Amino acid sequence: MKTIDARGLSCPEPVVLLREAMRSNEDAYQILVDNHASRENTMRYAQHQGYQATVEEQGGEWTLTFRK
Question: Which of 11, 25, 47, 57 has the most CB atoms around it within 10 Å of its CB?
Answer without folding.
Answer: 11
